[in-house]
Design brief:
Elements (H helix, E strand, L loop, with lengths): L6 E6 L4 H16 L3 E4 L13 E2 L11 E6 L1 H11 L6 E5 L14 H9 L4 E13 L5 E6 L2 E6 L6 E7 L2 E8 L1 E5 L7 H4 L11 E7 L9 E4 L4 E5 L7 E5 L2 E6 L4 E15 L5 H9 L12
Parallel strand pairs: 1-2, 1-4, 2-3, 4-5
Antiparallel strand pairs: 6-7, 6-17, 8-11, 8-15, 9-10, 9-14, 11-12, 12-13, 14-17, 15-16
């Protein structure tokens, strides 16, 4: 066994029977290989072997050198938060819906895990986003995100007005439901549903995509890796906004508060099994080329 991966963490929502079954099968496989296995799972964890170590929420990364996330992309994003700053790679088994990040199918998870433990895998480093909310008194809060930073209006029927600045230069005033600022990895997430482009994850870019813009000419914008994007609430805006990073709350964007988003120097590493093909993944998830006369992608 390669010396790098002997302590494996399994993460997933075991309340879902499909996730629990997959986690139990993987745990037995890893234990047979002589690995130690840890999990944060609580309810439903009785399906896992008793020797699997139970960790407190948020502490799994302290006990492992590889995390296997079983579920959808939300599970993978949670695993990424655990891995930030620890250089712990991630493998994703898809038990969700689309699963752009969890690219291993349940039918191939055992073979893929064996291949990984035997050293046959592809390491894929993904740059993180760094976000910082700064108030008028200079107090600040920050976060890092793999997919996106989202600014959305508070609940209510009125649109919000936001100003965007790039590298200190005014860009636009956006009226609508908010903005998504995505990494290349996150270009296939929320930003895609806002009409944003698909950006290959090897490219270090920022995608700025308006959410339900009031003006049809307000289109997504792609900027370079060294760009600094700032977002401010227009003072006359009749509502307020909340900021999230990968779905986790960062804070409120009120009058006098500035949000700055850049690409971080940090990254997380995704592991892919042999034969991984990003374009095949896109064809599969987005059903490209499918029609009544067209066979499924081989």
């Amino acid at each position: 066994m390669p010396p790098g991966f002997t302590r494996i963490g399994l993460i997933g929502k075991v309340e879902d029977a499909r996730v629990a079954d997959s986690m139990a099968a993987l745990a037995r496989q890893l234990l047979e290989r002589g690995c130690s296995v840890s999990t944060e799972a609580a309810g439903g964890a009785e399906l896992l072997p008793e020797v699997v170590r139970r960790c407190r929420p948020g502490t799994l990364a302290e006990a492992v050198d590889l995390i296997v996330a079983v579920g959808g992309d939300g599970t993978m994003l949670y695993a990424a938060q655990l891995a930030i700053g620890r250089d712990i790679p991630l493998l994703g088994v898809n038990r969700g819906r689309l699963g752009f990040l969890t690219d291993v199918s349940p039918d191939h998870m055992r073979d893929s895990l064996d291949a990984l433990l035997n050293g046959r895998c592809t390491a894929d480093r993904r740059r993180l986003l760094a976000a910082r909310l700064t108030r008028a008194d200079h107090a600040a809060t920050g976060c890092r995100a793999l997919n996106d930073i989202v600014v959305r209006r508070d609940e209510g029927g009125r649109m919000i007005e936001l100003e965007t600045w790039i590298d200190g230069r005014f860009v636009n005033t956006h009226g609508g439901d908010g903005l998504v600022i995505a990494s290349s990895t996150g270009s296939t997430a929320y930003a895609l549903s806002c009409g944003g482009p698909i950006v290959h994850p090897s490219l270090d870019t920022l995608v700025i995509a308006p959410i339900s813009p009031h003006t049809l000419s307000d289109r997504p914008l792609v900027v370079g890796a060294d760009s600094r994007v700032e977002v401010r609430l227009v003072s006359r805006s009749a509502t307020h906004a909340q900021v999230t990073g990968d779905g986790l709350p960062l804070g409120a964007l009120d009058d006098g508060v500035a949000l700055a988003v850049t690409l971080s120097a940090e990254s997380v590493t995704l592991l892919h099994p042999p034969g991984y093909d990003y374009y095949r993944l896109l064809r599969s998830k987005l059903h490209w080329g499918r029609s009544a006369r067209n066979a499924a992608d081989p």
